[in-house]
Write a structure and sequence with these properties.
- The protein has about 2000 residues and is of the alpha+beta class.
- About 45% of the residues are buried.
- The strands form 10 sheets. Strands 1, 2, 3, 4, 5 and 6 form a 6-stranded antiparallel β-sheet that branches. It has a 6-stranded antiparallel β-barrel with strand order 34-35-40-39-38-37.
- The two termini are about 75 Å apart.
- It contains 64 helices and 40 strands.
- A hairpin with a 7-residue loop joins β27 and β28.
Length: about 2000
């Protein structure tokens, strides 16, 4: 049975548990679990990181830990009972672990590795703490190190700053807000600005000496030298090196290292150096021969210098190689370092090019204790400490030094009977009073132990040597008296066996007889001569001799007779010995009582360091004199005491204050001194007002603290000795003293008055007296003294009076004192403190000090302190300070921030402290406090002002810049206080400002505060880690929901006043609802229903609500707010709310509009998250742009998204699309002088200027996108404007630009893009793509495979579909993404330029792939029984025509498919298309060959070879067999005309071939003559096989018009029409009216069919590209889940006839391609067999290089060749064998037909448009307003210029002339990928031209009857909703798909009848098929909504 647990509440998982049992809870090792119940070895509970998931788990998997339980019960909280540092470490490491992994993902390797090491270090330290074996000090150090590491990691990861006290986290509820602020600020300052250290140390390590002349041992001395004062600053560090230049004891590294300690900041200057002297130990001369008996001398070697300033920037040990210099003469040795520093190069030189001393140097900062902690390893080895000469900048009490430094300066010696000077060596030793040598008392330097004696270096043959060697004599104090130093002088001979002969000595005593130590300075010692065997054992024999010349009388004969002397310098650094006689006289006052007065007077002259040495002795002396003769010496003793006390105020001696405190407490014995001290002090205070000179009095008052300490301690000693006698007398004296002080303080003086300055001096020291008074008086008495004293201060005086600042400092110290901390005394002091504070705050002066005082006061107030005294204090503070604090914060935050970083930081600190004080007061307030506060506001205006003031302050507190980013703890406390206060004040708002007392400003301020409160970042819990979110919810709850409920409650109370906030509060409330918190949304969304309801009541609609919602949604969602859940919630809640409203329908419409906008905005935001520009971003932007344009009519948003789309296109280098996009904005502007405001990146300018700017930008982008034809149109328009304004300069530039564009058209190559159909199926796609199909314009050089891969990269989750069939519902409704991609062929609009002869291909290429609305895709299949002998009999083609909503190119690279038409092409029609295309190719190549004489004829040769060879080998025979047989004619009587047409095409081909051979014979090179002869022979065989003996008359009558003299304006002959029942009307055309370029396909036809067709036509490339053919990759297929199969696949039989011949043809014709067709319909076999794939791969070329399949070469557009029957849902148009032929003849009735979409139909052409033609270079039309708008072409109705209301005049589609509405297209099918990919006929099954031709002159345009799905005569069928977006291409304005009435101001040239063309064979047939009705007008598209002219 499950039982609740009592003690087992908390545990840590030891091993992972999968939770496979029923109700099992999965656990991972290291998880912490909270246990709820237990049962037989199992626990039930949850993991703390996921409390919602509860389950069971084995008890043995969990290690139990003790814990505390809060709120025991259902909602209990478990807190582990462990050290707070451990708890913090555990939670922090868990958070770090998650973020650490993300660092790896983000590739932040450096931080990743550093954090890894820190985490391991913290884990090790955690283990040490948990073990519990650390000492107290070590535990403290470990915890400090842990917290430092945790803070570092939190800072690096951007986590919150943790407030700590003694290494533990602080609970904000347990301390005041001011104290919390101080902790946060302290940690923040510690993190940002480390305190610079004033003490520094230099670490040095000698490594080796590199030199070429080594061989002797060396001594290296390092010292720090002051180059400015030319004296050393430190002792010498001494290292011995062996003869190899390395330390003698390399294993003892501590002997090679030293630490130069106690360097002050002033010592780190450029003129402070490290000086190295190197001494060699060996022979006298470096080059002398080695002698066994030779003595060892210390001789100069070299010197090196380095500046300390070079080490300041190094944080780690830096190795230096110091150059070693030698002096030119030994006489300069003593100053070689000075010469190096001064760079006197003539006196030294480099010892060697490679010589150098390797040392390691590093500066360390901090006091010695810190250095010992941080560099523990240095001190464990016993590193040498090299001390500073003299005391450091700060003298510490207890420091023991007794060092005498002696420097051997120089000497003067006689020759001593020698012919040369002596080699003098000095031996130094120290002897005590008994004449014994003190052992180890002479130190050459630190690093080596002391010795009994020291030998100086020897300077060769020098009687005036200068050594400059320093030694240290660290003697005990008791050894100084009677000791002396002896100097022995020896001559070092280099001849007499290298002996050292003694010739003299000197000595000097260390202490004089009167007790004074040897004074510092230079001493000239007498050299006493002696013999070699002199006995020094009895020192008494020479101590009576004079030791220095200073001890001899100046004019004595003895002094004059001394010729040999030696000079030394001594310096004493001792804490026990003195060299001052006055100090000795004072200390020995009892011996010489007559000198007491002089000694007291001279005390002020004694150096402070001497006084502090003997501080206790000096104080005992002073109080001893005072006790014995107070009347005589009392005042002088008092003055001396004041001097000593003030001496300790100096920073150098401030650390001796504890010494004096210890003296007072433990050693002071003056029990009677208090009377004299009080008397003298009162005497001085009484004289203050009348005294002229206040300096001495001010010195007395500075010492007030210690004077009171002596007074109080003296009284305590007296009371202790006498049992408390004279207590009343003492209290009376103290009261009289304070009366004098109050009188003195009450005096008002002017600024700068000496009395005022004296008052300031006293106030600085007065708070220090409180603690002393408390030792005798109780707290109330002392508080009374203080209150009366502070109360006696004068009122506020001048602003510049120094007393004011000092007064506040005194109050601050009072607040910080223990007196104020005591509640009993605080209530006495608080009124006077508040009085002074309030006065300063009201004047806004000394705010920094006021803030510190307030912080100190409020830091004593705890959150749960609700006792009566505390409540009274809070009430007093609220009454006196609350309003003042609010006003102060407002004034501070509204001031401009001062300049300078330090001032700015101070400014921010003051604000933060005042804020913390305000929060403390508000947090302490209870209901009674609020009630009394509101009652104190007497009038309604006062309450209104107070509410506005506090709401404004709260808004300031919520600002992000109020606190640093990582102060989340402080922000949460602030928000908790704010929401608590707002809940209290909302009642006052409801009671006092509703109904007739309604005040809009107060309510608006309240709502504004509430909104920004909810939206502040620190409350967005969703962005926090789970652990942080859990802690916040447990402590504060979700404050957003609390505030949201309060908003809703207050809104409901408004009643009819809600109208005042509509629509102003819609945006703010919408922002609140976008916060991702479910409860908050549920509360706030219904407010919108309320707003709609009230707006409906007021206005009858809610247009304002709708407009505001839409405007704010865009900006808010672009900031990342809102999600799909919000959209659904918004829709469902509001729909439910309006169910019973009378305005339900309009409400549903509004909600639907807003919901659709949300869908698009969410899609847009999701798409914009990716870094690269892709189709998703552009498509989504287009969708949103259209939505704003057509549905919302929001012009400004529309224009903004135009520019966003423009930027995307530029980034993607889609320059053409960028131009079309910017053209949308251009269309909204007029050529007017209307001023426009500044908008986006546009400055304030006129509308004309902005339109000009746009035109130039668009022209530039059209140029970059090689869309020069469109740029020319805009150039003309801009030129017209310049011409109208007579701006000929710009006009000239524009004409030159236009000319350059024409040149580019003719000279530069343009790539023709591929087009791809893409279907997006599945619910996972964005809204604007979901279950829609698009046609995309590919990039340059992009083929199908590359496009497929790009799409799959953009949609990595998508699955590529393996077929091309339309998907069913299971696909479109699936929760997935499916992509269906295949290539499609463009169907150019019928343009006359494509049919003109002599028009350059560069011009035609533009019209083939631009302004395309329709695209085609063909799929071959077999219908019925397949004839294996001749597959052409059953080979049908399913043709799909896609019509787009906009033409390509446009504002996007892809547009949605608007209509999809399907039809079937019969085998016979297919054969006709093949023949027509091949004839067209032949005509084109022949014409090119004639036009380009002398150029390569290979293309024509290959084409002729392919056609003739294929025909000879039976290609045409397959057609004859299939369609000319009696069986076929009998079974298909309706195809008679088509059969005739096919026969005519065969004859026509033969005729073209004959003409082509004639042309070929003229131009063929000599080496190709045999091939030509072969072709002629084969052609005769071909004619014979066709049964042609002589061409019919109509063929002879139609000689090929290949000559160049053909008129440019000739028109194509009328096409021959085929009955619509056959599914196709075939157009006839002139053989040369087609371009040469053809598109090819990799169609997989059966080998038989393809071979035979190849034999018939033999297709080849029409340009020189045929020589660049390469093998093509195989049919595209996508791998794995992304692969899509080809759309036409199947197996081909291998036994096709004609294969050998075709193979031969292929060998001779590299351009011919053998294709195969599937044996079965594609639906039955969508995939190629392996065999077929292999054969297909072997037969493919590059798409632009391989020939088109001759079976299916590019059929014509059904809309251009014939008028197909409209397709029903159940059947496709096909040949009807049952229909009689007579019914298939076109009836002469008016046709009504549909090309583009089922929305519109038009029955007639406009007469004017029907007869217009397009000469290549027409005259420029006259300017008629705004030609930019003429870029929209002629349309059936005037197109309103969106958003203007004016109609758009028509404009010509060509940059060269006005074109007709029905333009003819003969563009070839565009090339696709390297292989067909999806459609095997996608590149070959579209004809090169349309069938539209003008009728011959004099003949009326024939009419025909065609079935259509659109009712005849209907003028317009609109789309559902009539919301078609406006056309977006320049061409749409020039080549409209809709007829438009021509404006009267545009002159149209009369129609010109084209010249007669030679008759073609079909024109001799007497049938009505010769005529074809003109292409009907395209269906009208709905006009866009009328818009105003743009104001932007």
């Amino acid at each position: 049975m499950w039982m609740p647990t009592e003690h087992e509440k908390y545990g840590v998982v030891l091993a992972s548990f999968r939770g496979t049992v029923q109700c099992g809870l999965p656990l991972e090792i290291g998880d912490t679990v909270q246990i709820l119940e237990k049962c037989e070895g199992w626990y039930r509970g949850f993991v703390l990181k996921n409390p919602s998931a509860k389950g069971i788990f084995p008890a043995c998997y969990v290690y139990l830990k003790s814990a505390h339980i809060k709120n025991k019960g259902q909602f209990e909280t478990v807190i582990p009972s462990e050290d707070t540092v451990i708890t913090e470490m555990t939670s922090t490491l868990r958070d770090w672990g998650t973020m650490w992994k993300q660092l790896y993902v983000k590739n932040e390797g450096d931080l990743f590795h550093r954090l890894w090491h820190v985490m391991n270090e913290v884990l090790d330290l955690r283990r040490q703490v948990l073990v519990g074996h650390l000492t107290q000090d070590r535990m403290r150090d470990v915890k400090q190190h842990i917290t430092a590491r945790l803070d570092w990691g939190n800072e690096q990861l951007g986590l919150d700053l943790v407030p700590r006290k003694e290494f533990g986290m602080v609970d904000p509820d347990e301390i005041s807000v001011t104290e919390l602020y101080k902790l946060m600020e302290h940690r923040h300052r510690k993190k940002d600005t480390p305190v610079p250290s004033s003490t520094h140390h230099l670490f040095a390590q000698v490594k080796s000496l590199v030199s070429s002349n080594l061989g002797e041992e060396l001594e290296v001395f390092l010292t720090i030298y002051d180059g400015k004062e030319n004296q050393p600053l430190s002792e010498r560090f001494f290292v011995r090196l062996n003869k190899h230049g390395v330390p003698k004891s390399p294993e003892k590294t501590e002997r090679q290292c030293t630490l130069f300690v106690d360097l002050g900041t002033s010592d780190l200057r450029k003129d402070v150096y490290i000086v190295v002297h190197i001494i060699r130990i060996g022979r006298m001369g470096a080059g002398e021969k080695k002698n066994v008996n030779s003595a060892q001398y210390r001789r100069p070697f070299g010197c090196a210098v380095v500046s300390v300033a070079d080490l300041l920037t190094a944080d780690i040990k830096d190795d230096h190689l110091l150059k070693v210099y030698t002096c030119n003469t030994e006489t300069e040795w003593y100053q070689i370092h000075e010469n190096i520093i001064r760079k006197v190069n003539s006196r030294y030189n480099l010892s060697g090019s490679n010589a150098g001393l390797a040392v390691s140097l590093q500066l360390l900062h901090g006091d010695m204790e810190q250095i010992r902690r941080e560099y523990m390893a240095l001190f464990t080895r016993g590193i040498a400490i090299t001390k500073k000469l003299g005391f450091s900048d700060i003298i510490m009490p207890g420091e023991m030094r007794n060092d005498l430094y002696v420097t051997l300066e120089r000497g003067e010696f006689e020759k001593g009977g020698k012919s040369v000077a002596r080699n003098v060596e000095i031996t130094v030793c120290v002897l005590d009073a008994d004449g014994l040598v003190l052992k180890n008392s002479v130190w050459a330097g630190s690093g080596e132990a002391g010795a009994d004696e020291y030998r100086s270096l020897v300077l060769y043959h020098n009687n005036s040597p200068r050594w400059a060697e320093q030694i240290k004599l660290p003697l005990p104090v008791d050894k100084f008296r009677g000791s002396h130093v002896r100097f022995e002088f020896r001559h070092c001979s280099t001849k007499d066996k290298a002996e050292k002969k003694l010739f003299g000595f000197s000595f000097i005593p260390l202490m004089q007889e009167d007790g004074l130590t040897l004074p510092d300075g230079t001493h000239e010692l007498i050299v006493h001569k002696c013999e070699e065997n002199a006995n020094f054992q009895d020192c008494i024999r020479y101590l009576h001799l004079p030791f220095s010349k200073g001890s001899l009388p100046g004019n004595s004969q003895a002094a004059k007779g001394i010729k040999e002397s030696v000079w030394i310098t001594s310096f004493l650094c001792s804490t026990k010995l003195t060299q001052n006689g006055n100090m000795l006289d004072l200390l020995k006052w009892r011996v010489h009582p007559e000198k007491i007065s002089d000694s007291l007077s001279k005390l002020k002259e004694i150096d402070g360091s001497e006084i502090v040495k003997f501080l206790q002795d000096t104080l005992d002396t002073l109080f001893g004199i005072l006790d014995e003769n107070s009347q005589r010496y009392g005042l002088k003793v008092f003055d001396c005491l004041v001097h000593i006390i003030n001496l300790l105020q100096d920073s150098k001696f401030q650390h001796f204050k504890p010494v004096m405190d210890t003296y007072i407490e433990s050693h002071f014995a003056g029990a009677l001194s208090y009377r004299d001290l009080i008397k003298v002090l009162k005497w001085y205070v009484d004289r203050i007002v009348d005294a002229e000179h206040q300096d001495h009095i001010q010195q007395v008052l500075k010492a007030t603290e210690y004077i009171f300490k002596y007074i109080i301690q003296s009284r305590r000693l007296f009371a202790l000795a006498t049992g408390g006698q004279n207590e009343d007398e003492f209290r009376c004296c103290i009261r009289e003293l304070f009366m004098s002080l109050r009188f003195f303080l009450s005096q008002e003086g002017k600024s700068g008055n000496s009395v005022t300055q004296t008052q300031a001096v006293f106030l600085r020291t007065f708070p220090c007296v409180y603690c002393e008074l408390l030792k005798i008086f109780n707290v109330r008495e002392v508080a009374g003294f203080v209150r009366e004293t502070l109360g006696s201060l004068p009122a506020i005086s001048h602003a510049d009076c120094p007393l004011e600042a000092v007064k506040l400092q005194c109050i601050a110290k009072t607040v910080e004192s223990s007196l104020y901390t005591n509640p009993e005394s605080r209530c006495i002091l608080l009124p006077v403190v508040l009085h002074h504070l309030q006065a300063h705050l009201q004047e806004q002066r000394d705010l920094v000090m006021c803030a510190q005082i307030l912080s100190g006061m409020f830091s004593l107030m705890k959150k749960d302190d609700t006792e009566a005294p505390a409540s009274e204090e809070v009430e007093m503070m609220v009454r006196n300070l609350l309003r003042v604090l609010l006003r102060t914060i407002l004034e501070i935050t509204n001031r401009p921030q001062p300049a300078g970083n330090s001032m700015r930081l101070q400014f921010q600190d003051v604000t933060g402290e005042f804020v913390a004080c305000l929060l403390t007061v508000l947090r302490q307030m209870t209901d009674s406090h609020y009630q009394k506060l509101l009652e104190s506001l007497k009038s309604k205006d006062d309450l209104r002002d107070f509410l506005l003031q506090i709401f404004t302050v709260f808004r300031i507190l919520i600002r992000p810049e109020m606190f640093p980013k990582d102060w989340t703890v402080m922000r949460l406390v602030t928000n908790n206080v704010i929401i608590t206060t707002v809940l209290y004040l909302s009642d006052a708002l409801r009671k006092n400002f509703l109904n007739e007392k309604f005040d809009y400003k107060v309510w608006d301020s309240y709502f504004y505060l509430s909104v920004i409160f909810i939206n502040q970042p620190c409350l967005q819990l969703e962005t926090f880690s789970p652990s942080k979110r859990k802690k916040i919810l447990e402590k504060y709850g979700d404050m957003r929901v609390m505030m949201g409920c309060e908003i809703f409650s207050m809104w409901q109370n408004l009643g009819e006043h809600k109208l005042n906030f509509i629509p102003a509060m819609i945006g703010p409330f919408l922002e609140v609802t976008l916060v991702p918190q479910q409860d908050l949304r549920n509360v706030m969304i219904p407010i919108f229903h309320d707003m709609m309801d009230w707006e409906q009541r007021r206005s009858g609609n809610f247009k304002q609500v709708e407009a505001k919602l839409i405007d704010k949604l865009d900006s808010l969602m672009s900031e990342g707010k809102g999600d799909e859940t919000y959209r659904e919630l918004f829709n469902s809640i509001l729909l439910k709310k309006i169910e019973r409203e009378t305005w339900r329908e309009s409400g549903v419409s509004l909600i639907a509009t807003v919901t659709r906008l949300m869908e698009r905005l969410l899609d847009y935001r999701d798409c914009m998250k990716s870094g690269e520009v892709d189709g998703k971003k552009i498509g989504c932007t287009v969708s949103l742009l259209n939505f704003y344009k057509t549905e919302l009519n929001k012009e400004e948003m529309y224009i903004r998204y135009i520019h966003k789309l423009y930027d995307l296109h530029l980034k993607a280098q889609n320059y053409t699309e960028a131009s079309y996009t910017l053209l949308l904005y251009d269309e909204l502007l007029e050529w007017s002088e209307r001023p426009l405001r500044e908008f986006l990146s546009y400055p304030m300018q006129t509308e004309w200027q902005r339109k000009e700017t746009l035109h130039l930008t668009i022209i530039q982008n059209f140029d970059r996108g090689k869309c020069w034809e469109n740029a020319i149109i805009l150039c003309r328009e801009l030129a017209d404007q310049y011409e109208a304004y007579y701006d000929y300069r710009n006009l000239s530039k524009m004409r030159m630009m236009e000319a350059s564009l024409y040149d580019k058209i003719m000279d530069q190559q343009r790539l023709e893009p591929e087009f791809f159909r893409v279907g997006f199926y599945g619910k996972k796609f964005p809204f604007f793509l979901r279950n829609k199909e698009f046609v995309c314009r590919g990039h340059d050089y992009e083929r199908l495979e590359a496009f497929q891969q790009r799409m799959l990269n953009e949609f990595p989750q998508a699955i590529a579909m393996q077929h091309v069939n339309q998907p069913d519902e299971t696909i479109s409704q699936a929760e997935a993404q499916y992509l269906q991609i295949y290539a499609v062929s463009p169907i150019p609009e019928a343009q006359d330029v494509l049919q003109r002869e002599g028009v350059a291909d560069n011009i035609k290429s533009f019209y083939k792939v631009n302004h395309i609305w329709r695209f085609r895709y063909d799929r071959p299949f077999h219908k019925g029984t397949k004839d294996k002998e001749n597959e052409f009999k059953s080979l049908w083609v399913e043709r799909t025509t896609l019509t787009l909503v906009q033409s390509l190119p446009g504002i996007s690279r892809w547009f949605e498919v608007d209509k999809r038409d399907l039809m079937e092409v019969s085998p016979l029609e297919n054969a006709i298309e093949v023949m027509e295309n091949k004839n067209l190719q032949l005509r084109t190549l022949i014409a090119q060959c004639q036009a380009r004489q002398g150029q390569s004829v290979s293309p024509l040769t290959m084409c002729l070879n392919g056609v003739i060879d294929a025909a000879v080998n039976g290609g045409l025979a397959r057609y004859q067999e299939a369609f000319f047989g009696k069986d076929y004619v009998a079974s298909h009587p309706e195809d008679g005309e088509k059969i005739t047409r096919l026969r005519e095409l065969m004859f026509e081909q033969a005729h073209i071939l004959e003409y082509g051979l004639a042309v070929h014979e003229k131009v063929v090179p000599q080496d190709m003559r045999p091939l030509h002869k072969k072709l002629v022979d084969q052609f005769h065989v071909m004619k014979t096989s066709l049964g042609i003996q002589e061409f019919p008359a109509y063929v002879h009558a139609n000689p090929l018009p290949f000559i160049n003299g053909s008129p440019r304006g000739c028109r194509s002959s009328l096409p021959s029409a085929i009955s619509p029942d056959g599914g196709r009307v075939v157009a006839r055309r002139s053989p040369l009216s087609y371009p040469a370029g053809n598109r090819y396909s990799s169609s997989s036809l059966s080998s038989q069919a393809s071979n035979e067709v190849s034999n018939i036509t033999g297709q080849s490339e029409s340009s020189d590209e045929v020589f660049n053919m390469q093998p093509s990759p195989s049919t595209s297929s996508l791998s794995s889940s992304h692969s899509a199969s080809p759309n036409v696949t199947g197996a081909a039989p291998s036994n096709a006839r004609g294969a050998p011949s075709d193979q031969a043809s292929v060998c001779n014709r590299p351009s011919s391609v053998t294709d195969s067709v599937s044996e079965t319909p594609v639906e039955d076999s969508p995939l190629l067999s392996d065999k077929s794939k292999h054969s297909r791969e072997n037969s493919c070329f590059f798409p632009r290089d391989r020939p088109c399949s001759t079976a299916f070469p590019m059929p014509l557009d059904p809309g251009q060749r014939s008028l197909p029957q409209l397709i029903s849902n159940s059947s496709l148009p096909r040949s009807d064998t049952s229909q009689p032929a007579s019914e298939k003849v076109l009836s002469p009735t008016t046709c009504t037909w549909n090309l583009d979409s089922p929305k519109e139909a038009n029955t007639q052409y406009s007469d004017a448009l029907g007869k217009l033609v397009s000469p290549p270079v027409p005259p420029r039309p006259p300017y008629t307003g705004s030609p930019a708008r003429n870029l929209r072409s002629l349309s059936p109705v005037p197109i309103p210029r969106s958003p203007q209301k004016s109609s758009v005049p028509p404009y010509t589609p060509s940059p060269t002339e006005c074109h007709s509405g029905g333009l003819v297209s003969n563009s070839p099918v565009l090339s696709g990928s390297y292989s067909s990919g999806i459609s095997s006929l996608s590149r070959c099954s579209v004809s090169d031209t349309s069938g539209l031709e003008a009728p011959p002159p004099g003949e009326p345009a024939p009419t025909g009857t065609l079935s259509t799905s659109v009712s005849g005569g209907s003028d317009e069928l609109l789309r559902p909703g009539n919301k078609t977006p406006p056309p977006y291409s320049v061409y749409e304005r020039t080549n409209s798909r809709r007829p438009v009435p021509l404006p009267q101001n545009l002159s149209i040239p009369p129609p010109i009848a084209p010249p007669a063309l030679p008759p073609k064979p079909h024109q001799f047939r007497g049938t009505k098929l010769d005529s074809e009705p003109r292409r009907p007008e395209p269906i009208q598209r709905p006009r866009p909504l009328p818009r105003k002219v743009s104001q932007l």
